[in-house]
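Q: Protein A?
A:
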Amino acid sequence: MVTIKEIAKAAGVSPATVSRVLNYDPSLSISAAKRQAVIETAEALNYATPRNRNRTQAGPLQLPNRLLAIPRLAIVHFLEPSEELIDPYYIGVRLGIENRCREYRIEAVKVFHSETVAAAALLQSVSGVIVVGKHARAEIEWLLEHCRHLVFADFVPKQEDLDYVCSDLGIATRKILDGLHACGYRRIAFIGAQDPVSSDGRRFGERRCSAYINWQRERGTFDERLMALGEHEGAGQNLRLEVGYEQAREILARGAPPDALITANDNLAIGAYRAIREAGLSIPQDIAVVSYNDIPVAQFLNPPLSTVRILSESIGETAVDLLVERIHGREYAKHVNLPTEMIWRESCRKPLP
C-alpha cells in the first residue's frame, strides 16, 4: 500500500504538503505546478484514500464480463488545469470519475477546455465521454457530433434526452435561507457569479442566485444592494478566493453590513472572511457566513464554516455508472439528482433541531 511519505519523496515535497494537497486545502501556499505534480504522483502510484481503502476491504467489485469491452473513456472538463486546482470541489468530481473507472478497469483520459477541439480524434476513439461542468449549447452540439455517448456531471443541459447527474442547488439555497431565517437573521446578503451558460443570458439566472432572489421576493424582502456577482469571462476565474474578497468588500462598502452572508462556494467564503475581518467585524458576532460544497478546509477555518455538503466524488462516480449503462444499450435518458446536506458549524447560529 502506497503511503503519503512515498508520494512526498517522489514529488519532492514534505508529507504534510502531500496531505494538505490531497485534502484539497486551498489555503496551502504552493505553486499550481507543484500541486498538480503531487496529485499526478499520487494517481500514478495508485494511492488509495481511506474511503477507497474501506471499499476495498469491503470486498471486490463484481463486474460483468461485458465491462471489459469498454477500454477507455474521456473526461472533458469546463475548467483549465490551473483553474481546477484552485477548486477542491471539481477535483473531487474528477477523482470520483477516475476512482470508479479504476474499479471498472477502464482507462480515463483527461481533456481540459482549451484542448477540446484539438482532441476531436481522441474523443471519437473512446467509448464515451463524461462532460464536467458548464458547457454552452454550441459546445454540446459539437461534442454530440464527435462522441458516441455523453453524460454530464454537475451540469443540467437543456436537452432532455441527455444523461446528467447533479445536486439541486436551488433546494440547497432554500435550506440555507430557511435555516438562517429560523435563527433570526433578516438582512441576508449573497455573493456569487454570473452564469451565461445556465441562465439563458438572464442576469440573475444562476441557480443559487435565482433561488435566493425568489426566496426573498416571496417575503417582500429582496434588496439588490445585498447582492454582488462576479462577472469574469472565464468560469474558473469566478471561483477564486480573491473574488470572494472583492465581492464581500463591495457589499460592506454599501452601508450597514448584512446580518448574514451567503457565498456561492467555500473558496468565496474564505475570501469573504478576510474582507469581513479587515472591516473590523467578527464572524459570527457581526456577520454570519454560510456557503456551499463543504471542501475539507471548511471545518478548519476560524470559525469553522457552515456549508452545504455536496457529494462531489459521488457525482463523478454516478456519471461513470450512467455512461456504462448507455454504452451497454440503455436507450432512454436518466437524470440523477443527489441530495445535499446542510452542515451547521460556528460561522453562524444553528437552528434548533
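Q: Protein B?
A:
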Amino acid sequence: MTDPVDDLIAFIEASPTPWHAAHNAAGILAEAGFVPLRPSEAFEGVESGFVLRGGSLVAWHGAPGAGGRPFRAIGAHTDSPGLRVRPRPVHGSEGIVQLSVEPYGGLLVNSWLDRDLSLAGRVVVSDPDAPGGRATRLFHHRDPVLRVAQLAIHLDRDANDGLKLDRQRHIQPIWALGEPGPGDFSAFLASEVDVEPLQVLSWDVQLCDVQRPSRIGRSHELLAAPRLDNLCSCYGALRALVDARRAGRGAVVVLNDHEEVGSVSATGAVGAWLAQVLERVAGGNGGSRSELLAALSGSMLLSADMAHATHPNYPERHEPSHHVAMGGGPVIKHNVNQRYATEAATAAAFRDACGTAGVPVQEYSHRGDLPCGSTIGPASAAALAIDTLDVGMAQLSMHSIRELMACSDVEQMCRAFTAWFEND
C-alpha cells in the first residue's frame, strides 16, 4: 500500500480546481476497475462505476439501492475558497496590467497577498469534431504569473493593527507591465489549451498558489498544503471506496462542487443530481424506485469535511469542553441547529467503525456565541431523507490559501472511512 500522505500530496498538486479534482478522481477509479459512464448513457448492469459531471462525481460499488438493501455513502466537496477570473478580466493603470478577479466563497483574503500565483481552470473551445461543435479542455499553468501586491507599511502605518481589504479594489493581481491589449487573456488561454485565440469561447478560471505541499514540523509530522479543505476528504472517500470493494455491501461516494457558495447548483448537494444517479444505478441493476427509497431509509451518509483544531494562539475562540487536536483522529461534528447533520444514531455508527479500525475519535461543538459554518451534510440529508453525520479531520488555517493538518490523520481518516463502508 502506498503512503496515503504522498498520495494526498499528489492529488492536491494535480487538482488546482474542482474540475481537475473530479477529473483526477475519475482517473483513480478507472485505474481501480470502476466503469466510467457518461451522464447520457444507460447504467444497465454496472455494479461498480462512476459518472463525472463538471467538478462533481458520483461513484458506486455493489449496485446500491437495488433490492432495497441499505448501503453506506461518503460525501465530500471538490471546491475551495479562492479568487476567480471575471469574464472581461484585463485592465491596466499606472503602466501595470492586471486581471479582474472575484472572490469565491469565504476565503481568508489576506492569505492571498504577496504570494506567487498562477492560473488553472477549464476552457470551452470551438471544435468541429466535438459534439455540438464545442469541447471543454482543462489547463494548469504551473509557473508563477500573478501577484496581489500589498501596500507598503510606509503608506499604511496602521496595517499591523487591523488590515482592511476592499474586495473590489485591493485584491486585483498584477499580470504584466505595459498596456492591456484586446484579446490578451483569450490569447493566453488559447496557448494553454493549444487552439487559436478565436476558438476560445468561454472559461472558468481561478488563481492558485504555486508553492508545493510540504511536510513540516520538527519531525515532519505536519502537512502544509492548499485546498486541504476539502481535497483531503475527497481523497479519503475515494481511497476507502477502492479499498472496501471486497466488503460486498453497496457503497457510494459523491464529490459535489459549489459547497463553499451554498451548494445550490445542478451538481451541488442541494440539487437532484445524486438522487437521479442513485435511481438510475438501482434501475440499471434490476431495482425499482420503491426499492431505492426503501434502501435509503436504512442507509447512512457520512458527510466528510475538515474540522477546526483548537488554535493554540486563540483558545478562547473554541468551546471550552470540546478541544480538538491535530493528530487525534477523526472529529464528529455536532450542532443542534442543523449546521451539521450528526444525530446520536449516526454518531454511534461511526464510533463503531472507528473502533473496528482502531482509530481514536474526537468531538467538535461550536461556541454558542459565534456563527457556525456548515457542510453538504444537512443539504444531502434533506435531499435524500437519509440518516447523516458530519465528520472532519482537524486542521488550522481553514480557508487560507495554505492550510495545516497532521500527517497521521490522513492514514487514520482512510482507515476509518474504509471501516465505515465495511461495517454493519
